[in-house]
Amino acid sequence: MKITVVGAGAVGATTADNIARKALAEEVVLLDIKEGFAEGKAQDMSQTAALLGFDTRITGVTNDYSQTAGSAVAVITSGIPRKPGMTREELIGTNAGIVKSVAENLLKYSPDIILVIVSNPMDTMTYLALKATGIPKNRIIGMGGTLDSARFKYQLSKKLSASAADLNAIVVGGHGDTTMIPLIHHATWNSLPVTDFLSTEEQDEIVKATMVGGATLTKLIGTSAWYAPGAATAAVVESIVKDQKKLFTASVYLEGEYGQQDINLGVPVLLGKNGVEKILPLALSEDETKRFAESADAVRNMNDVLKESGFIS
Ligand SMILES: NC(=O)c1ccc[n+]([C@@H]2O[C@H](COP(=O)([O-])OP(=O)(O)OC[C@H]3O[C@@H](n4cnc5c(N)ncnc54)[C@H](O)[C@@H]3O)[C@@H](O)[C@H]2O)c1
Questions:
Q1: Phi and psi torsions of 285, nearest 5°
Q2: Residue 56 CB–ligand 1 contact under 6 Å
Q3: Of 28-32, 111-115, 260-264, 306-310, which range is least confident?
Q4: CB count, 10 Å around CB of 260?
Q5: Whose CA is nearest to atom 3 of ligand 1?
């Protein structure tokens, strides 16, 4: 089993590190365009093997896709992250060209590969990778909802003084500050509705803090976060390579589900050896349905930019 991670920056390296520590593959190939960068990160990580006790081989390469041949899964993190005050959507001009060429190169050497897209704006980059490569929709998964749901559980756990592991809560819709929808009325604390324990004001605070979770960290750190994004991406990869069929929210191609067509958006899915094994239906309230449709409109506007700029026809 070989897993490739493209982009050896903050999120890519953390993803590779988590994959190696969990021994999800015999080999992780870390690829970056910056000369020597992936090689250096791979060596550094490999030197933790004796301390942490894993056997996964970590290979760093500079833009050499032949080394990725035969990968079961590839994670695409290449591109620029946002700076304080920027939205994820502002990254489209630079990242679209990078994601398109990276996806095409990966497919050349691993025709059966499953792609996990992390680069932002993630929903649009996932749609682009799908359209540019033409691979079956079950083999392209956008990672964003898994992270946003983890951030939602973090906010809930703080307010409830509860263990984050005891919480079940998901975020659907687009992976953007204004497009994501934390579903607080569906969230439970070991099957007890969280809304039974929180005032309306507290619920609003949690939802708002979740939605700006990424922006809050970007402001504090000066660039976008990587520990939770890397852990969330490795969790998605784990469910695929171990065929765990875990339920995550991920950005998948919708053809009528949730009333949407020809778009990638975050919805609950089962992830297993075929990638997206199943898209699960969820009864949304009238308000949630309205917000989901608005989120889709915003993502569709971003997707139109791809068409206007000639990235897809
Ligand atoms: N989906 C999510 O939940 C989520 C979470 C965090 C970050 N992100 C996004 O992930 C991306 C990476 O963030 P980061 O913090 O790791 O950035 P980073 O700058 O630390 O790393 C990006 C890496 O991509 C490399 N790269 C650029 N062009 C490349 C190419 N053509 N081929 C191979 N490598 C190339 C760069 O050299 C760099 O090392 C950003 O777009 C960021 O917005 C998404």
A1: -70, 175
A2: no
A3: 306-310
A4: 20
A5: 144
What is the distance in A from the centroid of ligand 1 to the CA of 6? 8
> With a 6 A CB cut-off, is 218 part of the ligand 1 pocket?
no
- State the Cα angle at 241 between 239 and 242, rounded to 5°: 65
pTM reported for the whole predicted model = 0.98
Cβ atoms of residues 94 and 79 within 8 Å: yes
Rounded CA-CA distance 219/210 in Å is: 15
pLDDT in tens, 64-100: 999 999 999 999 999 998 889 888 888 998 999 999 9
Q: Is the CB of 175 under 6 A from ligand 1?
A: yes
Task: Tell me the per-residue pLDDT of 112-170, one tens digit each, with 9 for 90 and over.
Answer: 999 999 999 999 999 999 999 999 999 999 999 999 999 999 999 999 999 999 999 99
- Contact (CB, 8 A) for 10 and 78: no
> Does the C-beta of 78 come closer than 6 Å to ligand 1?
yes
Q: Is the peptide bond before 121 cis (omega within 30 degrees of 0)?
A: yes
> Is pLDDT of 238 > 90?
yes
CA of 111 relative to ligand 1 center, distance in Å: 23
Is the separation of the CB atoms in 252 and 141 below 8 Å?
A: yes
Pocket test for ligand 1, best of 75, 120, 180, 233 (most atoms within 8 A of CB): 120
